[in-house]
Structure formats: structure tokens, C-alpha cells
Amino acid sequence: MTLDSALQQDTERLDYARRVVEHAYEQGWTDGLPVVPVTAEMVEEFLAATPRARTDIVAAMPNLDRACTVEQAAVNAAMAGCLPEHFPVVLAAWDALMGERVVTGGAWQSTSGPAPLIIVNGPVRGELGINCAGGVLGPGFRANATIARAVGLIVRNVLGVRPQELEQATQGVPGRWSLCIGENEEESPWDPLAVELGLTAGTDAVTALLLRTCEFVDNRHTTVAEEVLWDLCDTVSRTGAAIGRHSSAGLVLGVEHAQLLAGAGYTKAEVQQWMYDHAVRSHADLERAGKGLGGMEGPGIDAHGLHMLAAPEQLLVVVAGARNAAMSMVVRPFGFGGWSRTAHPIDRVRTEGPTS
């Protein structure tokens, strides 16, 4: 084969790939970004990575009488850019999401446009290159990006929820399909989230819940633990997060903040209790924002105002990010009935090595 003929073949292959990508756009199969063309052989590689049967149901929307099989999930994970070894994490993420009451209650169609936060624990983080440190909530890491994207493509392509159709998000969340993180277990001063939720240390596991948004707290100004808690509390208790007599929050703590709190003697449970006790907005604060409680009753309402957390244990606390600036995130779980507080093991078929 001559050089010219080889170049001609390469050009024809690239042209064909481009036509395939454009076909996916025309069919409405994408989330706005190009998808990976998928062959039957690729799907078989993905199915070989899990012990689950291809016909098993992994995701469902009971309110629409729609469901997704393992095989359909494999197709969309491949389209999302996952590698086969990522696929068991995608399935575990769906196990976790299907355990959340809001997910099975129609949350994908909410006006809030919530985003799934997928948290990975265990050695699988290093094996698959799941980012736990710098830029953990941002782009640049294939496993984080594609695992989360696979969830979104399943919601779109299999469950049929698309923006301005069944999805009714008023504005939506920028990270709707990009929030997959690993917990920074190596630098966390506390047990990993999966251990807190009842699994054995070292278990590969996924926790997931839906979020409304993420809000940063930058406090590199103090080494006093209580001052950091007050700064976090100010964001947790903002009136904009109150809807009626309800609110919610979680903490994705940077390493410095987590170690500062632990160094001052705070356990994770004590951080949760402190935040519950202090994240309170007065009746006057709420009335000034047009959110007066007006005689409402509830477990979070007292003479002082409204507790902005449903219960101490409902405050998610996870450690992630790099040790390069004392920054943390307040996240807003979707729904006010509380999240399940469960971690789901990752069930996978182990091979001699990665496929690429």
C-alpha cells in the first residue's frame, strides 16, 4: 500500500466517523457533545465486565413506566466514552440512585434540574484513575467525566427525559452530568463515607444523591476550627436555600478544613451536630426575604426560627480535593425527605488488566 492510498483510507475512516457522530445528533442521542460510535463488539466488552445479566433492570422511572436494562446501559456508557472497566461503577451508581426516593418519584423531571453526585470509595479509585484530589469537581479526568455522563445519557436516551420535553428544568444545573468524584480517603482524617454508611473498609462502593447546586466556601484566613464552622454555616443557612419550611445541605470538605476540624477534636458526627444546631435563620430573616413561616409547624421550627437541616445525620460530609488552598463546597441535596445514607458495592468481573 502506498502512502497516498493509506492517507486516503485514513481520510475515508475519519469522514465515516464524522458522519456517524452527526447521525447521532440527528437522532437526538447526544447531550450536546459528540458521542462515541458503538459497535456490537464494544457492547459485549462492557457486558463482560459485570456479572449481571444483560436483561436485568438497572434504572427505572415508575411514574412513566420506563426502565433500562444492563445492555441498554452498556450502550450508553460506551457512547459516553467509558471504558469497559468503568461500567460496573456506572451500574453501582444506578443502584445508589434507585435507592433515593426522589429519583423514583420523578426528580429527573423537576424544575430544579437536579444533578446526580456520585461518590466513589475504595481501591477502585486508583485502579480506574478516578480523581479524588485537585480539580475533583472539574473536568479533565476520563473516568469521572464519562461515568457521570453515562448516567445522563441513560436518562436521556432510555428513560426519554430531554430538556424542554419531559425535563422541565427552569434553568438547570451546570454540572448536571459531570459530578462524579472519588473521596480523598488517603488524606481524610475520618472514616471513608462508605465505612460510615456501614460497609467494610476497603470495599469498592458508590454513594449517590441528587443535588440542586454547589457553593464554594473559601477560608484560608484562619486556623480556628470554630471560625471555619461559622463560615460554612453562613452558606448552609442562606435564606435562598429555604423552600417553605424545608432546606438541605451537605459538605464536600477540602483536606485543610477537614484536618483542621479533626485536629481540634471534632468527629464527623460532631461536625454534623454543630451545623444542625447553628444553621438556623430567624423568623425575621425569613420574613425579610418573603419566606415567613406564617404559623407553619414542623420539627425544624421553633421560637428562634428555622433549622436549615432536617437532622444532623442528613448532612452529607465527604472529603475531596487537593491540599493547596483551604476551600470547601456546600452542596444542596434535592428533596426534603432526606437521602438514604447508603453505599452500594461495585460488582465487577476482574481481568488481567485494563482494556486500554
Main attributes?
alpha+beta; seven-stranded mixed sheet; 356 residues
Q: Report the C-alpha radius of gyration, rounded.
A: 22 Å
State which percent range the strand residues make up.
15-25%
The parts where pLDDT drops under 50 for at least 5 residues are none
Largest sheet: 7 strands, mixed
The number of E-state strands comes to: 12
User: Which bin fits the share of residues in helices?
Assistant: 25-40%
Mean pLDDT value: 94
What spatial form do the alpha-carbon principal axes imply? Answer: globular
Please trace the helix and strand order, writing H or E for each element.
Answer: HHEEHHHEHHEHEHEHHEHEEEEE
Describe the structure.
With 356 residues, this protein is α+β, with helices and mostly antiparallel strands. The protein is 35% helix and 16% strand. The protein is built from 12 helices and 12 strands. The strands form 3 sheets. Strands 3, 4, 5, 6, 10, 11 and 12 form a 7-stranded mixed beta sheet that branches. Helix 2 (40-47) crosses helix 3, helix 3 packs across helix 7 (142-157) and helix 4 (87-98) packs across helix 7 (142-157). It is globular, with a radius of gyration of 22 Å. The model has no long low-confidence stretch (mean pLDDT 94).
What does the secondary structure layout of this molecule look like, with pairings?
Elements lengths: L2 H25 L12 H8 L9 E5 L4 E4 H11 L6 H12 L2 H4 L10 E7 L2 H5 L13 H16 L22 E3 L10 H4 L8 E14 L6 H12 L13 E4 L1 H9 L4 H11 L1 E3 H6 L12 E2 L2 E3 L8 E4 L7 E7 L10 E2 L11
Parallel strand pairs: 3-4, 6-10
Antiparallel strand pairs: 1-2, 3-5, 5-11, 5-12, 6-11, 7-9, 8-9
Helix pairs in contact: 2-3, 3-7, 4-7, 9-10, 9-11
